[in-house]
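Q: I'm building a small set of examples for a reading group on sequence design. Run inverse folding on the following structure and report the sequence directly after it, with nothing in between.
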């Protein structure tokens, strides 16, 4: 990969990461709740099941799709910079753990097991998308 393109991608990746952390961890008022005041939900997909029962499809799609879409860049960048599927999986899982731990520590959200699963899936799908992009961009 050429150096100018690599620099642009690094800037885009940093911007994505900062926006992700702002939206998920450093929300308005996140420091006003006290430390370790977040909630932990280990019952995977329970809230999604409630949304489906209530037929709240728009919020279901927003949360489900958002968890996947916001972490796809982790896998995409892992692939673009030469990583393997395991690197994308690890990047998605570790970044998701950082977000969920930050939400718990700062009391800025609910740390959910399903978020770890969907965020990691998003990174894997981003990796697959990166494979497709590179296959089409680099003729054999």
């Amino acid at each position: 990969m050429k150096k100018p393109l690599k620099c642009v991608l690094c800037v885009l990746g940093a911007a994505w990461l900062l926006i992700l952390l702002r939206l998920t961890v450093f929300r308005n008022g996140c420091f006003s709740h006290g430390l370790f005041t977040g909630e932990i939900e280990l019952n995977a997909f329970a809230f999604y099941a409630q949304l489906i029962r209530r037929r709240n499809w728009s919020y279901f799609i927003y949360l489900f799709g958002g968890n996947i879409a916001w972490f796809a860049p982790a896998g995409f960048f892992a692939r673009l910079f030469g990583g393997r599927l395991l690197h994308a999986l690890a990047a998605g899982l570790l970044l998701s753990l950082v977000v969920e731990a930050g939400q718990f520590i700062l009391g800025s959200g609910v740390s959910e097991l399903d978020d770890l699963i969907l965020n990691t899936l998003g990174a894997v799908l981003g990796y697959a998308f990166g494979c497709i992009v590179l296959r089409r961009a680099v003729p054999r």
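Strands lie at 39-41, 110-112.
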